[in-house]
Every structure is written in C-alpha cells, then in structure tokens.
Amino acid sequence: MLVTECTTGEEEFIQRIVTRYLYLKQRGLVISPRDWQYICRWLAQNIPLITVLKALEIGFAEMTEHTARVRSLAYIDRIVTRLERERRLMQIGRPKENETKSTSEVMRDGLTRIIAELEEIAKKEGDLAHPISNTILNIRRLIDEIDTRSLDFDHILKRVTQIEDGLFRSVFNRFEEEKKRYYEKKADKTLTR
Predict the structure, then answer these.
(1) Which tens digit of pLDDT belongs to each residue from 49-82?
(2) What crossing angle do the helices spanning 73-92 and 49-62 adopt, rounded to 10°?
(3) Which three-class secondary structure string do you get for 60-97?
(4) Number of domains in the chain
C-alpha cells in the first residue's frame, strides 16, 4: 500500500504512528519495510489510532537501561494485540445508556453472544467442532462462575484469554496431527513402491 493510495484518514493514521514511533525511538528518519507491514496490518484490522499510540507509549515505557531497545514495531505489535483484545472485550459488555447492569451481567451477556457465534462456526466446521465445543464448554463454566461468585473484570479477562489460548493450542495440535499423518502416509507409499 502506498501512502498515495490512502484516504485522508488512513494517511493521518499512518503519519501519526510513524511520527510518534520515530520520536520515541530517537533515531531514524523513515520506518523499515517490516514496520510498514505492521502499520498496514493495524490499518486493515481497523485498530483505533489511540490504541496503537497507547501501545507505543507502553512499549517504550517498559524499556529500561538494562533491557533491549525497541528496534521494530514487532515488539509493539504484541501490546497492540493485547490492548485491542481488551478493548473488544469491554465493547462486548458495554450496556446501553439507559440500562444499569452490573459488570457480571454485562460480561455474561457478551459471553453468551460469543457462545452463539461459536456454535454457528462449529456447525460449519467438521474437523474443528471438537476444540470449539470444548471452548464453548469452558465459556459456559466461566458464566457459571460469574453467576455464583462476583468476579472482577481483570479475572474475567484473564480467564477469557486462557480460553482463547486453549482454543488456539487445540487447533494447532490438530493441524500438527494431520500434518504428521500426511507425512506418514506419504512415507508408507514411498516404502511400498
């Protein structure tokens, strides 16, 4: 993506990130092609500018004299991902202005919507139905915990992140098993020839 192909809003998004990053980095006049890819990806994912700028501030604040310098936006990307996940989770549970719901009610409603979406995905995906159903079960357990105990937002966010990581590991392990079976079959065919 060239800057000339961008809309005014996209151009401002890119320019503000580049300017702030180079200012905090305190060296360089341009960003690397790799850093450019991160900015384009954030733009494509519709991550708000304020989230990226906050991640830049956090990333550079975490650096001290004894740790490595931020050399690319790859380090900042994990912070952007974390902040975006937190932002999305908070949006899921945001009540309407005229409603007054407790945090647990809001989170329960948001998690119930996630379960409905995962059930739709599980119907479409044959191979991934098992890991998805395990994730649904874990989310239901979390909802039960929310109902029985008063959990704070940080605890709920931590549990949702654990559930999300569990789903990723399950899908990755399933992929690795399929890859292993494929190569075993390929080796068997080679040996029988």
Answers:
(1) 888 989 888 888 877 655 666 778 888 888 898 8
(2) 130
(3) HHHCCCCCCCCCCHHHHHHHHHHHHHHHHHHHHCCCCC
(4) 2
Q: CA nearest 81: which of 107, 110, 45, 57?
A: 45
Tell me, what amino acid is at 36?
W
Amino acid identity of residue 99, one-letter, is E
* Residue 3 and residue 11 in contact, taking contact as beta carbons nearer than 8 Å: yes
**How would you class 160 by CB atoms within 10 Å of its CB: exposed for 0-12, middle for 13-18, buried for 19 or more?**
buried
Q: Rounded distance, CA 32 to CA 29, Å?
A: 10
The one-letter code for the residue type at 180 is K
Q: Are residues 188 and 116 in the same domain?
A: yes
pTM: 0.46
CA distances from 179 to 45, 170, 175, 182, 192 (A): 30, 14, 6, 5, 20
Domain end marker among 21, 55, 86: 86
For 20, the domain range is 3-86
Q: Is residue 91 part of a domain?
A: no
